[in-house]
Design brief:
two-stranded antiparallel ribbon
Length: about 70
């Protein structure tokens, strides 16, 4: 896949005070979304928006395009 995460998103969320338990409990993210992040799968734009809001960052800080030859 030519687009991948530049950072460990779950680790960054944890550093910001958002454990996976808190994400689920406060209904910020569901288990399926958390599993997608763990597996390196890309998320919908609405989920990316939630992450960017929680981390106060831009999508480009989370993902990058890798040129495949």
């Amino acid at each position: 896949m030519p687009i991948r995460y530049k950072v460990n998103v779950l680790e960054k969320l944890k550093e910001a005070g958002y454990s996976t338990f808190r994400l689920r409990k406060e209904k910020l993210m569901g288990e399926a979304t958390i599993q997608k992040i763990r597996n390196g799968e890309l998320l919908s734009w609405s989920n990316m928006e939630v992450i960017c809001k929680l981390l106060n960052c831009q999508p480009g800080e989370l993902v990058e395009y890798i040129k495949e030859d």
